[in-house]
Amino acid sequence: MKMHYLQHVPFEDMANIEGWAQDRGYDISRTLLYEDEPLPDRDKFDWVIVMGGPMNIYDHDKYPWLARENGFIKAAIQGGKIVLGICLGAQLIADVLGGKVRRNSHKEIGWHKVSLTPAASRSKFFKVLPKEFTAFQWHDDTFTIPPGAMRTAWSEACANQTFECNKAIGLQFHLESSRDSIDHLIENCSDRASGWGVHTEAQGAAVQGRQVPRGQRPYGLLPGECGEG
After folding, report:
1. Residue 8 designated active-site
2. Which residues span the domain enclosing 176?
3. pLDDT tens digits, one per residue of 44-59
Protein backbone atom coordinates (compact mmCIF):
# COMPACT_ATOMS: atom_id res chain seq x y z
CA MET A 1 0.00 0.00 0.00
CA LYS A 2 1.38 3.37 -1.03
CA MET A 3 0.23 6.27 1.15
CA HIS A 4 0.79 9.92 0.27
CA TYR A 5 -0.09 12.86 2.48
CA LEU A 6 -0.47 16.57 1.86
CA GLN A 7 0.89 18.83 4.61
CA HIS A 8 -0.14 22.49 4.78
CA VAL A 9 1.98 23.80 7.68
CA PRO A 10 5.09 22.50 9.48
CA PHE A 11 3.23 21.73 12.71
CA GLU A 12 0.41 19.51 11.34
CA ASP A 13 1.78 16.20 10.10
CA MET A 14 0.28 12.68 10.20
CA ALA A 15 1.07 12.19 13.92
CA ASN A 16 -0.26 8.77 15.01
CA ILE A 17 -1.34 7.79 11.50
CA GLU A 18 2.31 7.62 10.46
CA GLY A 19 3.12 5.06 13.16
CA TRP A 20 0.00 3.09 12.22
CA ALA A 21 1.10 2.97 8.58
CA GLN A 22 4.71 2.10 9.42
CA ASP A 23 3.54 -0.83 11.56
CA ARG A 24 1.81 -2.22 8.46
CA GLY A 25 4.78 -1.75 6.16
CA TYR A 26 3.13 0.92 4.01
CA ASP A 27 5.23 3.09 1.72
CA ILE A 28 4.80 6.69 2.88
CA SER A 29 5.48 9.81 0.85
CA ARG A 30 4.44 13.43 1.29
CA THR A 31 4.07 16.81 -0.34
CA LEU A 32 4.95 19.86 1.76
CA LEU A 33 2.62 22.36 0.13
CA TYR A 34 3.95 25.25 2.22
CA GLU A 35 7.34 24.59 0.56
CA ASP A 36 5.63 24.55 -2.86
CA GLU A 37 6.74 20.97 -3.49
CA PRO A 38 5.32 19.23 -6.59
CA LEU A 39 2.35 16.88 -6.33
CA PRO A 40 2.85 13.25 -7.40
CA ASP A 41 1.38 11.41 -10.36
CA ARG A 42 -1.66 9.28 -9.52
CA ASP A 43 0.22 6.03 -10.14
CA LYS A 44 2.57 6.90 -7.25
CA PHE A 45 0.00 6.32 -4.49
CA ASP A 46 -3.01 4.17 -3.55
CA TRP A 47 -4.52 6.66 -1.18
CA VAL A 48 -3.94 10.20 -0.03
CA ILE A 49 -4.41 11.89 3.33
CA VAL A 50 -5.12 15.62 3.32
CA MET A 51 -4.01 17.12 6.63
CA GLY A 52 -5.24 20.14 8.57
CA GLY A 53 -4.08 23.72 8.69
CA PRO A 54 -5.07 27.16 10.00
CA MET A 55 -5.94 28.62 6.59
CA ASN A 56 -9.37 28.80 4.95
CA ILE A 57 -9.94 26.77 1.78
CA TYR A 58 -10.65 29.99 -0.13
CA ASP A 59 -7.38 31.75 0.84
CA HIS A 60 -5.96 31.38 -2.68
CA ASP A 61 -4.41 34.84 -2.60
CA LYS A 62 -2.30 33.96 0.45
CA TYR A 63 -1.71 30.31 -0.51
CA PRO A 64 -1.66 29.94 -4.31
CA TRP A 65 -1.02 26.20 -4.04
CA LEU A 66 -4.59 25.69 -2.74
CA ALA A 67 -5.96 25.79 -6.30
CA ARG A 68 -3.41 23.18 -7.41
CA GLU A 69 -4.25 21.03 -4.41
CA ASN A 70 -7.96 21.29 -5.18
CA GLY A 71 -7.40 19.88 -8.65
CA PHE A 72 -5.19 17.11 -7.27
CA ILE A 73 -7.86 16.02 -4.75
CA LYS A 74 -10.53 16.01 -7.45
CA ALA A 75 -8.38 13.87 -9.75
CA ALA A 76 -7.57 11.43 -6.94
CA ILE A 77 -11.27 10.96 -6.13
CA GLN A 78 -12.19 10.55 -9.79
CA GLY A 79 -9.35 8.06 -10.14
CA GLY A 80 -10.83 5.80 -7.45
CA LYS A 81 -8.15 6.48 -4.85
CA ILE A 82 -8.90 6.38 -1.13
CA VAL A 83 -8.93 10.02 0.00
CA LEU A 84 -9.06 10.88 3.70
CA GLY A 85 -9.33 14.51 4.80
CA ILE A 86 -8.76 15.77 8.35
CA CYS A 87 -10.11 19.16 9.48
CA LEU A 88 -9.02 21.52 6.68
CA GLY A 89 -8.54 18.41 4.56
CA ALA A 90 -12.18 17.40 5.08
CA GLN A 91 -13.30 20.89 4.11
CA LEU A 92 -11.24 20.72 0.92
CA ILE A 93 -12.77 17.36 0.00
CA ALA A 94 -16.28 18.63 0.78
CA ASP A 95 -15.68 21.60 -1.52
CA VAL A 96 -14.42 19.36 -4.35
CA LEU A 97 -17.53 17.16 -4.01
CA GLY A 98 -19.94 20.09 -4.18
CA GLY A 99 -20.40 20.92 -0.50
CA LYS A 100 -20.04 24.37 1.02
CA VAL A 101 -17.49 25.53 3.61
CA ARG A 102 -18.43 28.36 5.97
CA ARG A 103 -17.71 29.70 9.43
CA ASN A 104 -19.26 27.47 12.11
CA SER A 105 -21.58 29.05 14.71
CA HIS A 106 -18.98 28.28 17.39
CA LYS A 107 -15.31 27.49 17.58
CA GLU A 108 -14.72 23.90 18.66
CA ILE A 109 -11.31 23.49 20.29
CA GLY A 110 -10.28 20.84 22.80
CA TRP A 111 -11.72 17.42 23.64
CA HIS A 112 -15.41 17.08 22.78
CA LYS A 113 -17.92 14.26 22.49
CA VAL A 114 -18.72 13.05 18.98
CA SER A 115 -21.74 10.86 18.23
CA LEU A 116 -22.34 8.64 15.21
CA THR A 117 -25.48 9.04 13.14
CA PRO A 118 -27.73 6.02 12.46
CA ALA A 119 -26.37 5.99 8.90
CA ALA A 120 -22.87 5.22 10.22
CA SER A 121 -23.94 1.63 10.92
CA ARG A 122 -24.04 1.11 7.13
CA SER A 123 -20.51 2.43 6.65
CA LYS A 124 -17.56 0.04 6.37
CA PHE A 125 -15.36 2.81 7.76
CA PHE A 126 -17.38 4.37 10.58
CA LYS A 127 -19.20 1.32 11.92
CA VAL A 128 -16.00 0.22 13.71
CA LEU A 129 -16.15 3.29 16.00
CA PRO A 130 -18.08 3.53 19.27
CA LYS A 131 -21.46 5.23 18.98
CA GLU A 132 -20.04 8.00 21.17
CA PHE A 133 -16.39 8.88 21.68
CA THR A 134 -14.21 11.83 22.64
CA ALA A 135 -12.19 13.43 19.86
CA PHE A 136 -9.77 16.33 19.68
CA GLN A 137 -11.11 19.38 17.82
CA TRP A 138 -9.51 22.57 16.55
CA HIS A 139 -11.60 24.44 13.98
CA ASP A 140 -13.61 27.58 13.25
CA ASP A 141 -15.14 26.46 9.95
CA THR A 142 -17.48 23.66 8.98
CA PHE A 143 -18.78 22.01 5.80
CA THR A 144 -22.15 21.02 4.43
CA ILE A 145 -22.53 17.37 3.49
CA PRO A 146 -21.71 17.05 -0.23
CA PRO A 147 -24.41 15.77 -2.60
CA GLY A 148 -24.53 11.99 -2.54
CA ALA A 149 -22.38 11.71 0.60
CA MET A 150 -23.42 10.07 3.88
CA ARG A 151 -23.37 12.12 7.11
CA THR A 152 -21.90 9.82 9.73
CA ALA A 153 -21.16 11.85 12.89
CA TRP A 154 -22.09 15.07 14.71
CA SER A 155 -21.30 16.99 17.90
CA GLU A 156 -23.12 19.55 20.01
CA ALA A 157 -21.11 22.43 18.54
CA CYS A 158 -20.82 21.18 14.95
CA ALA A 159 -23.64 19.27 13.26
CA ASN A 160 -21.48 17.88 10.44
CA GLN A 161 -18.42 16.12 11.84
CA THR A 162 -17.87 13.47 9.19
CA PHE A 163 -19.00 12.26 5.79
CA GLU A 164 -18.34 9.37 3.45
CA CYS A 165 -18.72 9.39 -0.32
CA ASN A 166 -17.52 6.16 -1.92
CA LYS A 167 -13.77 6.16 -1.09
CA ALA A 168 -13.66 9.79 0.04
CA ILE A 169 -13.86 10.37 3.79
CA GLY A 170 -13.95 13.66 5.68
CA LEU A 171 -13.23 14.08 9.41
CA GLN A 172 -13.70 17.49 11.00
CA PHE A 173 -12.01 16.26 14.20
CA HIS A 174 -8.40 15.15 14.63
CA LEU A 175 -8.46 11.38 15.00
CA GLU A 176 -4.71 11.27 14.37
CA SER A 177 -3.77 13.38 17.40
CA SER A 178 -0.82 12.56 19.63
CA ARG A 179 0.35 14.50 22.67
CA ASP A 180 3.09 16.06 20.57
CA SER A 181 0.74 17.11 17.76
CA ILE A 182 -1.64 18.75 20.26
CA ASP A 183 1.29 20.56 21.88
CA HIS A 184 2.28 21.87 18.43
CA LEU A 185 -1.23 23.22 17.82
CA ILE A 186 -1.25 24.95 21.21
CA GLU A 187 2.18 26.46 20.52
CA ASN A 188 1.26 27.73 17.05
CA CYS A 189 -2.46 28.51 17.22
CA SER A 190 -3.28 29.34 20.84
CA ASP A 191 -4.32 32.87 19.80
CA ARG A 192 -7.42 31.32 18.22
CA ALA A 193 -8.41 29.31 21.30
CA SER A 194 -11.16 31.43 22.83
CA GLY A 195 -14.94 31.26 22.76
CA TRP A 196 -17.74 28.77 23.22
CA GLY A 197 -16.74 25.11 23.06
CA VAL A 198 -13.09 25.82 23.84
CA HIS A 199 -10.97 24.23 26.57
CA THR A 200 -8.42 26.46 28.22
CA GLU A 201 -4.78 25.54 27.66
CA ALA A 202 -4.53 24.15 31.19
CA GLN A 203 -7.64 22.02 30.73
CA GLY A 204 -6.43 20.82 27.35
CA ALA A 205 -3.04 19.85 28.73
CA ALA A 206 -4.65 17.92 31.57
CA VAL A 207 -6.91 16.01 29.20
CA GLN A 208 -4.02 15.27 26.84
CA GLY A 209 -2.29 13.07 29.37
CA ARG A 210 -5.48 11.16 30.12
CA GLN A 211 -6.71 10.65 26.56
CA VAL A 212 -3.63 10.28 24.35
CA PRO A 213 -0.69 8.52 25.98
CA ARG A 214 2.49 8.70 23.94
CA GLY A 215 2.57 6.05 21.25
CA GLN A 216 -1.18 5.41 21.26
CA ARG A 217 -2.63 4.57 17.85
CA PRO A 218 -5.82 6.17 16.52
CA TYR A 219 -9.16 4.37 16.42
CA GLY A 220 -9.45 1.60 13.83
CA LEU A 221 -11.09 3.76 11.18
CA LEU A 222 -8.41 3.55 8.52
CA PRO A 223 -9.01 1.48 5.39
CA GLY A 224 -6.52 -1.31 6.17
CA GLU A 225 -8.61 -2.19 9.24
CA CYS A 226 -11.98 -1.94 7.50
CA GLY A 227 -11.66 -4.26 4.55
CA GLU A 228 -10.11 -1.70 2.18
CA GLY A 229 -6.66 -2.31 0.74
Report:
1. no
2. 2-225
3. 999 999 999 999 999 9
